[in-house]
Amino acid sequence: MSALDIRDADLIDKAYLELLAERAGSGASIALERADQPEALALIEELDAYQMPLYPAESHHGVEVSVLLQPNVAFAVARDESGQAVGCGAVWCVPEYGELKRMYVRPQCRGKGVARALMDFLEDQAKARGCAAMTLETGIHQHEAIALYRRAGYEFCAPFGSYAVDPNSVFMRKPF
Asked: Keywords in UniProt for this one (predicted)?
């Protein structure tokens, strides 16, 4: 933080300062990439391997790579300073909202602001595509993810779209 930022800090909301710290600390570059390229596929496979033992098959709501290649989906990859892929996520845009999908950050990169920066990037993509809100479904055992979403302004909501009530799922929404 620069001297000007520190002097003005008392004028800025604490949550905004936390957001700046999360964004500045990530060191990640984020860009739209194809979901079917090898590094993206590896991240998606890691996400699936992480979630498979946590939930029964009927509670797995990840979309196939072919869906991530559709024109109404923005798929992004976060890369560290060396260019290594460390995280990914997508926003699937329908007329009413964007749905956050396939959000994943490698364990060694968690807690460094990568997930927040990736989520902010995807929210910007949703807004640019005309979405009025962002929605998501995540598993009940992903406590860190739920906390991240809450800090980012997401609120719990009822199932949306084609989702049904699932005791292993949490549904959240953030209006823009």
From this structure: Acyltransferase, Transferase
- The 10 Å Cβ neighbour count of residue 125 is 21
**Residue 1: inside a domain:** no
Domain range for 117 is 16-175
* Structure confidence at residue 56 (pLDDT): 83
pTM of the model: 0.83
Domains of the chain: total: 1
Beta strands 169-175; 73-79: pairing state:
unpaired
pLDDT tens readout for residues 75-132:
999 999 999 999 999 999 998 899 999 999 999 999 999 999 999 999 999 999 999 9
**3-state SS string for the chain:** CCHHHHHCHHHCCHHHHHHHHHHHHHCCEEEECCCCCHHHHHHHHHHHHHHCCCCCHHHCCCCCHHHHCCCCEEEEEEECCCCCEEEEEEEEECCCCEEEEEEEECHHHCCCCHHHHHHHHHHHHHHHCCCCEEEEEEECCCHHHHHHHHHCCCEECCCCCCCCCCCCEEEEEEEC
- Here the CATH number for the domain that contains residue 71 is 3.40.630.30
In a domain, 168, yes or no: yes
Classify residue 5: in a domain, yes or no. no
